[in-house]
Design a protein that fits this description.
Blueprint lengths: L4 H23 L4 H21 L4 H27 L8 H26 L2
Helix pairs in contact: 1-2, 1-4, 2-3, 3-4
């Protein structure tokens, strides 16, 4: 089976988000913001997977656009967790998470734009 970079990246990101959620709940006793990140961070890959089985090009674009919105929302929650001192922006794991979501946002933006341009 051919590698799909965005599928792979979104799955790895979702795994990191699940682990971060467990950490935030267990260690920081933070349940609200982390739940929001869990929801949006795992939704990215789910929507990308749905897009792969899209019934039409429009359906594919719509699902990828939703994935892009969820990625942007995830970025917001990560930034909020950093700014409220639940996460340390200097921590290597946090920097990796920020870099991953930035890359996912860029990839999804590119996929949506290029798909729309080829109508």
């Amino acid at each position: 089976m051919k590698d799909n970079v965005i599928l792979d990246k979104s799955l790895e990101f979702a795994i990191r988000v699940v682990k971060l959620y467990k950490y935030l709940c267990d260690e920081k006793k933070e349940y609200i913001l982390s739940k929001q990140l869990l929801r949006s961070g795992t939704s990215i890959g789910a929507n990308i997977n749905e897009a792969q089985a899209g019934q039409s090009k429009a359906d594919f674009i719509a699902k990828m656009a939703i994935a892009s919105k969820e990625a942007r929302e995830s970025k917001y929650w990560i930034n909020l967790l950093i700014k409220t001192d639940y996460l340390n922006k200097h921590d290597v794991h946090v920097r990796t998470l920020v870099n991953e979501i930035d890359e996912i946002v860029k990839l999804l933006t590119s996929i949506v734009k290029s798909s729309q341009g080829n109508n």
